[in-house]
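User: Predict structure, ligand uridine-5'-diphosphate.
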Amino acid sequence: MNILIIGAGFSGAVIARLLAEKGHVVAVKDSRNHIAGNCHSERDAESGVMVHKYGPHIFHTNEKKVWDFVTSYMEFIPYINRVKSTAKGAVYSMPINLHTINQFFGKTFNPEEAKQFITKQGDNSITEPANFEEQALKFVGKDIYETFFKGYTEKQWGLDPTQLPASILKRLPIRFNYDDNYFNHPYQGMPKEGYTVLVERILQHDNITVELNAKVLRNDALQFDHVFYSGPIDEWFGYSEGRLGYRTLDFEEIRGDDIQGCAVMNYPDSEVPFTRIAEHKYFAPWEQTKSSIAFKEYSRACEEGDIPYYPIRLVNEQEMLKKYINLARQEQKVSFVGRLGTYRYLDMDVTILEAMNTAKEFLAKLEKNEPIPAFFVEPI
Ligand code: UDP
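Assistant: Predicted complex:
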């Protein structure tokens, strides 16, 4: 089959590779001037630092098959994400752990004592947390919530935390020991030569061609036997139902030799306009660099022409998304994949797993002569 894949991020690259290996001819086209989507990394000439151009990406997964897949293309160097947070004039350890609790409350609790203390801090009248704020108040109480989560979340999402789903907070663990590893996953690391080279290797196959700076028109796309579209679903339909809401990020560069002493420093205070500072040399501690570079991250509403990062998915967006899903189901030859194609907040590993499963199911359906669905993963 002649297959078109729109978008050369992880979704597109993984699907392209797995189909190419089965003999399909795959054209991958991306509207930007580079592959790897928002994972794109590039070496900064002045400092020699490998910079994650669209903000920090740390690879972590529960799935051995995802880990085996990525590490078959590139060596991954063990990397543990240890985030700090500067709040109300002091520096704390993130995610909330025994060190944070003891430091914040001026205590010397052991795990059991801390658990009892935090349970008392929590609002027990909340049984089923309906939103981000209730989730936080129930599990960590007002003081921790207001110091570490409220301001950060307002800045990150531009919304009151009562309007956000509880699921966003569930991304962060709370620990009653001194483990400050941001992620719980067993496989964690950084691709040695960076994400862009990793994606380049995934795309390196005789049956795959890659075209950059390529805006694909719908009619041209439909000349192919099948299309996997990993761009924004609303864009595919010319925004006919309106624009789905995203947050975008602006980065302000800081240069120096040693800027903050760690990879990621969060700034939850509402008076500080940015959410965090990432110093990229710390994402590659095995490399020697001439100097350092860091970026302040400012979050704001994504407007026309901006790069979409985080899907907002509130009630209004869900309604609009349903309309796009209905339109998508009427397309004969297009499957919508990935973060932008299905409008979901996806980590890299989930994106890769879904792409692996999509390719597998697509091949199985072809074999059985079954119709190819618009979605291999339901967006809602
Ligand atoms: N968050 C927070 N304070 C922090 C870090 C995170 O309130 O110091 C909240 C915030 O709402 C954020 C969410 O937790 O959007 C998920 O954080 P994560 O670090 O997973 O965000 P990502 O790295 O994907 O931007």
